[in-house]
Amino acid sequence: MHQPLADLRILDLTHYYAGPYATMLLSFLGADVVKIEAPGVGDGARGLFRKRERAYGYPFALLNNNKRSVTLNLKSERGRDLFLKLVETADIVVENFAAGAMESMGLSYETLRPRNPRLIYATNTGFGLSGPYRDLAAFDPIVQAMGGVMAITGEADGPPLKTGAAIADILGGAHLCAGLLAAIRERDRTGRGLMVELCLYDSIVPSLTSFLGAYGMGLKNLRDGNRASGGAIAPYNSYPASDGHVMILAGDNSRWRRLCELMGRAELADDPRFATPSARARNRHEVDRIVGDWTVAKTRRELFEEMGRAEVFCGIVQELDEVMADSHLLERGLLQTVEHPELGPMTIFTSPIRLDGDRPRVKSLSPKLGADNDEFYSVELGLNASEIALLREQKII
């Protein structure tokens, strides 16, 4: 099993989605991720979708596998001193607090760097460390709104909508992971640490690429449901099946011709209303009606297989329970079914990254808050049982 980061330790101060996703990706590459949380409460994600009898809910369990949990009050002088000792032997510190939070605790990069010149310090805020929005609070839907995603999502005659998925957070986490991998490579070359800065706002803008292309061509009214940017491609939409919906893309002439043959309407390929991409775009509502009248009589699976054989782009619109039982994702190992000690039987996602075909390996499941306190502080800082008990009594850990 390839573990290229097995010699690295990450002090993970992140919370909720973006930061924890980045550090979990690195843990699947072998990094020792020590999740440092505030005593008593911990990562705010522990409380999301949590049943009363559980210590935490599914979101936390999904994003914090392969990590150890220790508690530490960074706002106390003693807690700060303990953290600075941990920094001396760490490779990476990652945080996604609001801009200025680490400085207010006396733990900025400028403070940490003299303790460990090889330290890589990463920060992932909502809007970055500079610019007029620097101090704005941000969660995923706020960034979607500010970043143009809501403006292009929804039906043409409806209000702007956020995407259902937390794309700003997950894109932010993926970009943060990439930045850390680059920083590790730079330190390998120079022997010196550096600061990595990512923000959710920057990370979401590249997702607008198709719409910015349409905008650059002068197209307006870019919000148009499941159609292509500004309705520039047809057929390009979700269509009804007898048991749900499928998504079909057949914008080029060759795929449109093959789709017409499948529908038993070969003559449509040469109909002036539909013979070219621009003609189909102008008549996209009629194209959608024709295609929908054909698809509604078939099941999703029938459509998926028929169009797959004809090399026409088609995907089943799957419900969440179908996604989490998808045979393809299970066979590849992205989805793995586990017996979770806190949540019982559940399916988790692992890492999309593959090295020489390795399946991602789950070394440990998401930890209870402070589960590793005793072992970690005794081994790493040489504290005895009495000292650890006193720290717990003083609410420092």
Query: So what's the CATH class of the largest domain?
Result: Alpha Beta
How many alpha or pi helices? 17
Q: Helicity range of the residues?
A: 25-40%
Q: From the 3D structure, determine the CATH topology of the largest domain.
A: Rossmann fold
- Largest sheet data: 6 strands, parallel
Oligomerization category of the chains in this entry: single chain
H/E topology pattern: EHEHEHEHHEHHEHHEEHHHHEHHEEHH
Mean pLDDT: 95
CATH superfamily of the largest domain: Crotonobetainyl-coa:carnitine coa-transferase, domain 1
CATH architecture of the largest domain: 3-Layer(aba) Sandwich
N-to-C span? 35 Å
Strand content: 5-15%
Uncertain runs are none
Coarse morphology: elongated
Whole-number count of domains? 2
What is the tally of beta strands? 11
What would your notes on this structure say?
- This protein folds into two domains: 9-206 and 326-393, Crotonobetainyl-coa:carnitine coa-transferase, domain 1 (Rossmann fold), CATH 3.40.50; 233-317, formyl-coa transferase, domain 3.
- The two termini are 35 Å apart.
- It is built from 17 helices and eleven strands.
- Helix 1 crosses helix 7.
- A six-stranded parallel beta sheet has the order 3-2-1-4-5-6. Strands 7-8-9 form a three-stranded antiparallel beta sheet, with helices on one face. It has a two-stranded antiparallel sheet with strand order 10-11.
- It is an alpha/beta fold and 397 residues long.
Kindly summarize this structure in a few lines:
The protein is an alpha/beta fold and 397 residues long.
Topology readout:
Layout: E1 9-12, H1 18-28, E2 32-37, H2 58-63, E3 67-71, H3 77-87, E4 92-95, H4 101-104, H5 109-112, E5 120-125, H6 140-146, H7 167-190, E6 195-199, H8 200-204, H9 209-216, E7 236-241, E8 244-249, H10 253-262, H11 277-282, H12 284-295, H13 300-309, E9 313-316, H14 320-323, H15 327-332, E10 335-340, E11 344-349, H16 373-381, H17 385-393
Parallel strand pairs: 1-2, 1-4, 2-3, 4-5, 5-6
Antiparallel strand pairs: 7-8, 8-9, 10-11
Helix pairs in contact: 1-7
